[in-house]
Amino acid sequence: MLPRWCNEVYNLNGAYAIMHRIVQESNIVKGGRGARPKHSVVSYALIIALKEMQDRNLREAEEHLTKYVCKERVDHSVLSYWENKKEMSIIVARFISIAGAMLQRVLSMEFSFLDSTKFTGWNVKEMKLIEVTVCNRICNQTVYPVGISFLRSDVVSPVRESVPNGTGKIKADAWYDEIETIKHLFKIGYIPIICPNKNRINGFYRKKAREIYSLRENRLAYRQRGRGESLFGSLTNEFGDRLNARNVNSIRTRVAARIFVYQIKLLIRCQLTALLLIVRHARDSLRCKKSDSVKESHDTEEKSTAGSLSYAKAGASHG
Questions:
Q1: Average confidence (pLDDT) over 297-307
Q2: Of 202, 203, 207, 166, nearest in space to 187 by CA
Q3: What's this model's pTM, rounded to 2 decimal places?
Q4: Which of 68, 135, 211, 222 is the most buried (most CB within 10 A)?
C-alpha cells in the first residue's frame, strides 16, 4: 500500500473511476411514485461525495463537478435538494458496504472494531444528536470501515445494520454489553470481546461473552481497541470536527460521504500499489529478456570467432 501522503489519492479521475465501479455493483434504481429525476440518483450521490473529497461548497460543485459527472451543468439548488433527502445517506451507506467488501478482499484483517461517535454543526442545535455507528476492520497497515448506521432506537439496531457477516474477534466498549447485541454478534460469526458493564449481569450470551473476555489473552487484546478509533481522528484531521449545515439529513449525508471518500482513498492506494508491482514485474521481465538476448548474441559471436580461428589453423597446417 502506498503511503497516505501520496498525491495520487486526490486524483479526481481515479476516484471517479472507482466510485463508478461501486455504483455499478450497487444496482440502485429510484422507485416509488412520481417521475424519475433527470439524472440518476447515484449521479447526485457521486457529486456530493466528490464535493466532500475536494472540500467544495454547492456552488463550486455546480461549476466544477456537475459537468464532469452528468455531462451538463446542474444547479446547486438541485444538489441541495438531494443532499437534504433522508434516502441519500442510506444510498451512500450502501456504497460504503460495497467499498468495505472490496477493501477486505485486498487487505488483511487482524480483528474488527465497533464504536460510535457524534458529529456536531455550527448552526443547528439538533446536530449534537447526529451519531454514527461504524464497524471497522483493523489490519497491519491501516484501518478501513465496512459499514455504518445512523439508527439510535436501541443498541442492537445500528449493530445489525452496520456489522456485516464475518469471522474473528470483534471488540467493543461497555455500551454494547447488551444481550441482543451479543447474541447477534455470535450468530453472524464473530467472537465478541466486550468490556463488561458492572450494572448488567444476567443473560446466557452475556455470561458466554464474559467467559471469553476473562481470558488473559483477550483482556490484553482489548487494549488494542484504540487502533480502531483512529478512523475518527483521520476524519477530523481531514475534514474538521464540525459541519456548517442547516439540515440534520444533510449532516448525515455529508458524514457518510466523508467516510466513503476515506475508503476511496484507501482503494486508490491499494490499486496503485498493485499497478506498481505489475509495472515492476514487467520491467524486470524485459530486463531478463534483454540480458538473455545479449548473452545469446555474445555466444553466437564467440562461436563464429572460434570457427574462423579453427578454419585458419586448418588452412595453415595444410599449407
A1: 58
A2: 166
A3: 0.82
A4: 135
